[in-house]
Every structure is written in structure tokens, then in C-alpha cells.
Design a protein that fits this description.
Layout (H helix, E strand, L loop, with lengths): L5 E8 L3 E2 L9 H15 L9 E5 L7 H8 L7 E5 L5 H14 L5 E8 L7 E3 L9 E3 L14 H11 L4 H20 L28 H6 L19 E11 H6 L6 E10 L8 H12 L8 E7 L3 H11 L12 H4 L6 H15 L8 E8 L3 E9 L1
Parallel strand pairs: 3-4, 3-5, 10-11
Antiparallel strand pairs: 1-8, 2-8, 5-8, 6-7, 9-12, 11-12
Helix pairs in contact: 1-2, 3-11, 5-9, 8-9
Length: 387
């Protein structure tokens, strides 16, 4: 079968809400369907034209992609499957969709991530004997008593100690991230990106994004790992609910639609690391991406969207790869907007699309990259070209 090109021609997301907050009563399909419908409307594709949907999700169980497909009005004959690589699931779904279309297996695919931790089923561990009581399981494997894997904050703490990243540096980075996000809101750069589920101001902005930029607030936060810990609620990202979706089409469809602004996947990679180096996984994935794209000059990357678990991870990522702070998350990152678990990687691609393709502007980046780490020590990175 002849291979072709694939193009991301639309990308939307919901506002991200704290667990038990903005989306507290919304099931995953209620959260994701409006995002899909908005993305399809943006590119003038009707739901009945969609061949397949691929969704990243880590907490729902079963195959929520099918439920989301039906709630979105996609045809019953549309294929649907769910990917679970924890935090990297949404980016994996988009990379998979691009490759599937490029191989000629489909013409139109909706792909992304959706996570409703607020309404997801609870997981309960079966007791080892009849004399023990069952107990709840956390989202992360490291929350299990028998796991030797460090919690994500412990992994970032180890990283900050190895690289001597002080608490003051982390707080300053988080503060700058909030300032970037505030500037983006003031300039209405999220308009056309965020889909309000209801027509209220709260639905059009990320719930954790704060306008309180008092440095004393950051300094006053207690560390997660006292007494010497440097990670705090103010310089790390917290779990959130949210959905982010893109529309991937074949070259034939792209041309039929008049060649609208689009992103093209240049390469996507994944890389495993030692469990205690989970915080370093995005850096290792980026290095593998460079190796995979030999001949490409990393200095041509004009934008990087990183889903950082902590400011310490973001500082390490930038310094180890030679990225300027202004190049990473120019509109604020996950420390500001929150971490929607399996949808996080899809949010990164939506952010790239907004900066590189949504509006025809001068001096937009030609190449953009996104990267994140997944629980268990997996890094995923992707390079996109604007067309």
C-alpha cells in the first residue's frame, strides 16, 4: 500500500479543571464530545465523515474511545480504540493517528486524550486473605505499598538534587510561567483553542491559572518532602480533568479542503529510563528524537511545549538541551494550567497548533516540538512542521 502524508488541520481542548472542581460532574464523554465537535466544525468536516477515533485515557477502564465516539455523533461504523501509556497516552494517540493516515489506512481520524479523574471509577485492591480489608489504589503505580518506583515528585526532587536546582530557582521559574499565562490570557491567545462546555467565563479559562503573582505566595508554600525538599504545590503541576483533540486527514482530504494551515508530524519517539530517573525521561526522549531526525538542526526548533511535572524538571530540560526559557511554554505550562494525566500530551499538540497553524501570522515557528514523561519512566517526544 502506498504511503502518503497526514495533516493535523484542527485542534481544540477544554479548559482544564481541578479534580472535584470545574468538571466535577462530567463523565469523560460529556467532557470530550464538545471538543471533538468544535474541532470538526473548525475544518468543515461532519462527524459522519470520520473513519476512526483514537483516545488516550488511563483511569476510565474499558474502551472509552467508543463511548466518546457515540456521544460525539461519529458513525457507528467508525473504529475506536483507547491507548493507555499513562501521561503520554494523548500524544501517543495523535502520533498513532498520523502514522495510520500516512499508511493509507484511513482518511480522517479524530485523536487526542481525555481524562475525567473526578468521575472515573475507583480502583480497589483485592485483599490477600479473608481477614484483610480491601483498600483503594491510587492513580500512580508508586502509590502502591509494594512498588519500588518513586512518586513523580520524589523523582523530580532527586533530579533537582543531582543538578543543584535550588528552591528559589524553581519558584522563580513557576512565577514566570504564571506571568506568561497571564499575558496570553490578556492577549486572548486561548480564544479559538479552549471550548467552553457552557457559556460562562469560568469555562473559557484553565481553573488553576492564577492572577495572584505575589512572589511571597510561592516562598510560603511548604515542601512536599520536608524539611529539605524544594518541590511545593506552587512549583509543581497538579492532576486535572480535561480533554484535547485534533483532526488528522490524508493529503487527498487536505487538498480537497483547500490546503488549510496544518501541522505535519516529522517524527515521534518514546524512550524508557530507569524508574528513579522518571523526571529525566523527556530529555532522553528529545535526544532520541534528534538521533531519529539526523540532518535536522535542533536550532531550527522555534517552539517547545513541555508538560512539566515540576519547575525543577523544566529547568533541567531547558539547560540540558540548550533551550532558552522563552522558547519553552511561551504561554505558560502545566505548573500553571494543571496536568490532565492521559490528556496532557494532546494538550501539548493543541498548544503547538495554536502557535503554529491556527492563525496566519508572520514569524510563526516552522518547527515545534513537544515532550513529556509518563509514570513508570517513559519519555515521549514529537517534532512537527507547520504547513
Amino acid at each position: 500500500m502506498q504511503t502518503s502524508m497526514s495533516y493535523i488541520i484542527a485542534a481544540r481542548r477544554s479548559a482544564l479543571g481541578r479534580v472535584g472542581g470545574l468538571h466535577r460532574n462530567r463523565r469523560i464523554e460529556v467532557l470530550a464530545a464538545p471538543v471533538i465537535n468544535a474541532a470538526l466544525a473548525d475544518c468543515k468536516i461532519t462527524p459522519d465523515q470520520v473513519d476512526e477515533i483514537i483516545v488516550g485515557n488511563a483511569t476510565q477502564g474499558g474502551n472509552p474511545a467508543r463511548t466518546i465516539a457515540l456521544a460525539s455523533g461519529l458513525p457507528e461504523c467508525a473504529a475506536a480504540f483507547t491507548i493507555d501509556r499513562q501521561c503520554a497516552s494523548g500524544l501517543d494517540a495523535i502520533i498513532t493517528a498520523c502514522r495510520t493516515v500516512s499508511e493509507g489506512e484511513a482518511d480522517i481520524i479524530v485523536a487526542g486524550g481525555a481524562e475525567s479523574i473526578s468521575t472515573a471509577p475507583w480502583r480497589i485492591a483485592k485483599p490477600k486473605s479473608l481477614y484483610q480489608l480491601p483498600h483503594f489504589l491510587g492513580i500512580e503505580p508508586a502509590m502502591l505499598d509494594e512498588s519500588d518506583e518513586p512518586h513523580q515528585f520524589e523523582a523530580s526532587e532527586l533530579l533537582s538534587q543531582r543538578l543543584n536546582i535550588a528552591r528559589e530557582q524553581q519558584d522563580a521559574w513557576a512565577l514566570r510561567s504564571h506571568m506568561k499565562a497571564q499575558s496570553a490570557r490578556d492577549d486572548k491567545r486561548f480564544v479559538g483553542e479552549i471550548v467552553p462546555i457552557k457559556s460562562t467565563p469560568e469555562e473559557a479559562r484553565d481553573q488553576s491559572a492564577s492572577s495572584d503573582l505575589d512572589p511571597d505566595h510561592f516562598a510560603a508554600e511548604p515542601p512536599f518532602l520536608p524539611p529539605e525538599g524544594s518541590l511545593t504545590p506552587a512549583n509543581t503541576s497538579a492532576m486535572h480533568d480535561g480533554a484535547a483533540m485534533v483532526v488528522v486527514v490524508s493529503q487527498t482530504v487536505w487538498e480537497e479542503l483547500g490546503k488549510p494551515p496544518a501541522l505535519r508530524l516529522v517524527s515521534g519517539v518514546s524512550q524508557g529510563v530507569k524508574a528513579d530517573n522518571e523526571a529525566g525521561a523527556p530529555m532522553e526522549a528529545m535526544r532520541k528524537l534528534y538521533e531519529r531526525t539526523k540532518g535536522f538542526n535542533p536550532k531550527d526548533i522555534g517552539l517547545v511545549e513541555l508538560n512539566e511535572t515540576s519547575a525543577a524538571q523544566a529547568i533541567a530540560f531547558g539547560s540540558s538541551l540548550g533551550f532558552d526559557d522563552d522558547l519553552i511554554n511561551p504561554d505558560g505550562g502545566a505548573v500553571v494550567r494543571g496536568h490532565p494525566f492521559a490528556a496532557a500530551g494532546a494538550v501539548l499538540v493543541v498548544r503547538l497548533f495554536s502557535r503554529m497553524a491556527r492563525n496566519r501570522v508572520e514569524n510563526r515557528p516552522k518547527y515545534g516540538a513537544c515532550a513529556l514523561g509518563a509514570i513508570g519512566g517513559i519519555g515521549v517526544a514529537a517534532l512537527f512542521e507547520a504547513l
